[in-house]
Amino acid sequence: MGESRVTHKSYEELEFRDDFMFGKVMEDLNLCRDVLECLLDKPVGELTELETQKEFRFTSDGKPIRLDVYNKDSYGRIYDTEMQNLGHKNVPELELAKRSRFYQGSIDIDFMNKGNHYKSLPESTVLFICTFDPYGYGLRQYTFSEKCNEMDLELNDGTTKIYYNTTYKGNDIPEKLEELYHYIETGEPTGDLSKRIEAAVEKGRRNELWRTEFMKEWALLLDAKEEGRAEERVNTEIEKNRAVIAESRADAAEARVKELEKLLAKAGIPVKE
After folding, report:
1. Residue extents of the structural domains in the chain
2. pLDDT score recorded for residue 65
3. I need a labelling partner for 41 at 20 to 30 A (CA). Which of 35, 106, 247, 264 fits?
4. Cα separation of 158 and 130, whole Å?
């Protein structure tokens, strides 16, 4: 899940790299499959399920967790593809590793909640398309799978996490992936895939239903921010009052101790230090 489905941009300015437009464009089964195959550099089965903004409600407060683009292919493999911009945060604040772990866990729980056995857990891959270098080592992508620390042994639990670096400028990169990176970075389509994506984006900018949905989400975000500011003010006031209460209780306790010390002194009983 990107930071937010909406940005400060107007609807007409939205690009593929913006979370809202990314999710909408990826609703096209064929285009989505081609993007997945480009990212993974291998064939993907026919997509039998495609859901954007798929919700899981596994949090204690009941708030939904949303996956940008959730897919299942004809081989039963599951893919969660996330567009991740840096926004106003730094890389550590994004908690990419913990988020990808949580997303993958949510996929497994959702599968189990449908009455399936853990032995049937499908292969799942979480893909973060980062418009920055997520680890700072200059790689075109960072692929993680479970391995044994003591020897070259794969766990083979069927889970993979991949973080893509669209800012990569090296030469050792598949042509299609380089084309996709260039398009995400510049908005300039140079090949078949990026031209098809750009055509879908341009068409999307003229889609009044999408525009209405975007504006609704923007309004909800502004409301949530305002509620957050009000909640912050209330919590600050509560903490101030708690501090006053704690201080007053401390003063009362100190006064009581002094009173007891006086009584003990009158009775000739020594006060323990």
Report:
1. 11-206, 208-273
2. 73
3. 106
4. 23
CA distance 261 to 272: 10
Q: Are 183 and 16 in contact (CB under 8 A)?
A: yes
Average pLDDT of span 136-151: 96
Task: Classify residue 23 by burial, with Cβ atoms within 10 Å: 0-12, 13-18, 19+.
Answer: buried
Tell me the C-alpha distance between 90 and 48, whole Å: 36
Half-sphere exposure of residue 167, counting CA atoms within 13 Å on the CB side? 12
* DSSP letters spanning 54-105: EEE--STT-PPEEEEEEEEETTS-EEEEEEE--TTS-HHHH-HHHHHHHHHH
One-letter identity of residue 5: R
How far CA 85 is from CA of 38, 68, 261, 271, in Å, comes to 20, 13, 64, 65
Tell me the pTM. Answer: 0.77
